[in-house]
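Hello K.,

You asked for the raw outputs rather than the summary table, so here they are, unedited. I folded two proteins back to back in the same session to keep the settings identical. This is the first:
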Amino acid sequence: MLVITTVGTSLLENYRQEHHGLDADYFKLKEEPASNWDNNERRINKVKKALLNWAQPQGETSAEIKSLFNLRRQAGQAIEARLLATDTVLSRLTAEVLEEVLAGTIKTVFEPDRDVIKGLQVWDRKRFEKEGLINLIARIEELNGTCEEVAINFTGGYKALIPYLTIMGQLYNISLYYIFEDTDELIRLPQAPLAINCGIFEKYSHIIADLAAGIDDWSRHRWRYTIEDEFRACIWEDGDFAELNAIGRLYWYRYQNYFLVEVLKEADYFRENSGNKQEVNSALQELYGRLNSRIIGNGLKNTEDLQAYLNSLPDKDDLRHGEKPDRDKYIFKSTNKSQIRLVYTPIIKPYGLSLRLFDHVRGNFDHTVYIKEFKEKMKMHANQEYTAITLKKPQS
């Protein structure tokens, strides 16, 4: 298990409760950003030497050490700690000491070039929100893809990070741990049924990519497009400049890992039990992956290009299996779930491929008879309405 651990300065604070010889150096370094590391080398080495001679890989030495030992005991397995420091000299110093102190007891990794989070400091609120939080989320997003089981331990570090890390943990299904300073009780935050409102990203898909990059003439965009309150909470505005804020990017990063399927409201999909529905979802993921591979491989730019490509395929191709049920509808033959066929329409939107699902079939069937039955069924649903679901994109 990879345990992403935010680092504060409790190790240093605990040392100062017993020793006061470093107070002058502490108060000087306390005001220094991490970028001034080289300019404070003498003081840093003095403090580091004292801490390494005092700190022990056990119990009450620091909040990070206590929480990691408790977490390993509760998990019942080996853990690897990845330390993330704030953009301050003291947090980096503490992380480097912790890495050495924990060596031999818990595998601990800290790479200053990657694990000191730029902008994550408390002297400049705008920089904290605009740069620090966004860099922290991006770093955790990167680490989350390196191990099958990931947890976040936010016992150390700024308390202002807790709401953001909590939302991220819920969205990414990452376990969250915290330990109170005065007890040994490790708290694991339960996973809540929190989901992305995909409708917001659908609604604002025409500007969301621009907001991710930053918009310099925001007043013109606001005049041109109506931005309602539900989405304004995802935007950072500073004069005539606007971009996705930390929460907006958190949801946007997550949303990009999923694809949208619009399912006909009257479809049998909604009458399936959970096990059978999961099989249909698996077939939809297979269809998405195979279509996306063809789109990339053939340089297809829009829905018309994609449908022209599908129309050119032979009847035995799985993406266009047998006779088409309608002008823009195709039958997909799943090879992962060989007994499932999907009646679908592919749509290329500005942010990627989405699918529209009309029907699915299990088991052997007469293709000609089914096409006739499907057309009759569609006549009964003249006013077609759809329910949007999201599925995780398959690994490429």
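The second followed immediately with the same parameters:
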Amino acid sequence: MEVLVLGSGAGGGIPQWNCLCPNCVRARLEIKEKKEPFSLRRTQSSIAVRAVGEKWVLLNASIDLPTQLSREPELAPPGIEIRSSPFSAVVLTDAQIDHASGLLSLREGKDIELLCSESSWDLLSNSYPLIRILSSYLEIKKATFPFKIGSLLFNALNLGRSVPPYAQREPRPDDVIAVSIEEESGKKIVYCPALPEINPQLEEFIQESECVFIDGTFWSENELCLWNIKEKKASQMGHVPVGGENGSLNWLSSLKIPRKIYIHINNTNPMIDPDSAQAKAVALSGVEIAYDGMKLLL
């Protein structure tokens, strides 16, 4: 199985257009000085997966999708027709703006096989009606879990009630899901860019995985409060923080999974800086931090 990280940042990316936090300031400096590879700059999170020789499946579609596709030669339109898509399907883990808005960039295609929870389908049909709008441009084929795409089997686990801020209804259990992708050989990865809580069901779901991508949005529970950005804590926004006694890093370090990778990292998270104590603590725990363009062959 091939995995390509298209974007590794949380909503807004790094640098975020209106942010003067240290990470965003340094990312702008990297761009100005044309330093490559960029160590801090990140677009909004999304990955693509495929079995070797098959078409790609896109997991979450950020508003940065056109930029992400243009920089990856492997995602150029395949075949000899004048118009074609590198994707056989799109999978959504929730209906958050930073995970779904990129669907609009696919409107030039002929059709989309869209795999998501009933809650996300409902939100994207009514509260944030991307599906209704897109249906005027192309055919959208609804698919539900479990679902096989090519030789890959996609399954889902409800992670809890964490509804997008725009939703005008009570939260539902399948507002946020983790997605597993399994080859016929049994090799499996899990994609979980939002983690409202760590529970036994999730531990069972990721067992026997070759690789797990986990929510790395915030380092600490009060991260946005400390910067006077928001009064909400990380857990109130549906994210278990990385650091701390009950953080995800302690949990991940105890798991016997070959590769554990943080993704969906907010611009305020100090572990983005590779020289920070937080980044070194992550590395010492045997966990990786995703970056745009990261490639895995499992």
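The mean pLDDT is 95.

Happy to rerun anything if the numbers look odd on your end.

Regards,
P.
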